[in-house]
Amino acid sequence: MAGISVMVPFDRSPEARRGLEVALTLARVDRRKSRVLPIYVAEVDRAYALDADLPKLQATAEACVSEAEDEVKQAKVSCEVVILSARHAGPAIVSEASETGVDLIVLGVSHANTVHGGGEQTALARSSGAAIDLGHTADYIISHATCEVIVVREPPRGVHRNGLLGG
User: Fold this and answer.
1) In whole angstroms, what is the distance from residue 62 CA to residue 35 CA?
2) Cα pseudo-dihedral 161, 115, 13, 22, rounded to 10
């Protein structure tokens, strides 16, 4: 089997950590030929230029990808970290995935996004009547990515995870 290239949006959240865990499980099948690309998109407020010097935002980005890079290297898989500045993460991730030619994007999502009839829903949630609204970033990636996308979510709290990927 040929290796796989997997992009993983990573922000240190439990969901992103689970996404990275799944990406590494997939990459370990052929770790000599696979690569994992942790990506952090620093969403820059419109009050600032995209190339503005924002040390706090840059420090957060570097800490996130550094942590992900350590995990990937520990798994003995090739790692290429990506840090981008953009107004919105979804389009930046889709564009970068297309430009780098990754095979797959792995997205970690949260149970916190369960729809209970209130708040603003994404177009995908409204049109599908879904019980979970993945959020604008995940909605954009799922709707626009030119590669495959895997959505990973943790089981609800209190539920023992005994799935295929361990637990």
Assistant:
1) 19
2) 40
pTM: 0.81
Q: Kindly list the distances between the CA atom of residue 82 and the CA atoms of 38, 77, 79, 157, in Å, as whole numbers in the listed order.
A: 6, 16, 10, 31
With beta carbons less than 8 A apart as the criterion, state whether 68 and 10 touch.
yes
Token code pair at residue 37: 């690309």
Q: What is the pLDDT along the chain (167 residues), one digit of tens a residue?
A: 478 999 999 999 999 999 999 999 999 988 889 999 999 999 999 999 988 999 999 999 999 999 999 999 999 999 999 999 999 999 999 999 999 999 999 999 886 554 444 445 455 445 555 555 577 899 999 999 999 999 998 766 665 555 545 44
- Give me the CATH topology for the region 5-153: Rossmann fold (3.40.50)
H-helix or E-strand containing 77? none
Distance CA 53, CA 59 (A): 11
- Sorted by where each begins, the domain ranges of the chain are 5-153
At 81, the amino acid letter reads V
DSSP of 19-66: HHHHHHHHHGGGTTT-EEEEEEEEE--TTS-TT---HHHHHHHHHHHH
